[in-house]
Amino acid sequence: MSLKAFHVVFISAASALAFGFGAWMLHAYRLSEGTTSDVVWGVVSLVAGVGLLVYEYFFLKKLKNVSFL
Predict the structure, then answer these.
(1) Which of 31, 45, 58, 65 meets the CB 3.0–4.6 Å disulfide criterion with 22?
(2) Half-sphere exposure of 35 (CA within 13 A, CB side)
(3) pTM for the complete prediction?
């Protein structure tokens, strides 16, 4: 597995984790006695997930001529 392929897999997994954590925090806020920090962590995590996807897009655009092998 090349460094490019590993990077794409790692950033995809990190963004999925960020979206999952953000959804979990927002869900926890809605269910019980949620605090303001739950909303803050949820929104920050969702923004981080979007940022990681934007980063991955520009990374793939920059290295489009490098193979995945």
Answers:
(1) 45
(2) 2
(3) 0.88
* Ordered per-residue pLDDT tens for the chain, 69 residues: 889 999 999 999 999 999 999 999 999 999 878 899 999 999 999 999 999 999 999 999 999 998 887
| Closest C-alpha among 9, 1, 10, 11 to residue 49 | 11
What is the CB-side half-sphere exposure of residue 49 using CA atoms within 13 A?
16
Cα 29 to Cα 35: distance, rounded to the nearest angstrom:
7
Crossing angle between the packed helical segments 3-31 and 36-62, to the nearest 10 degrees: 160
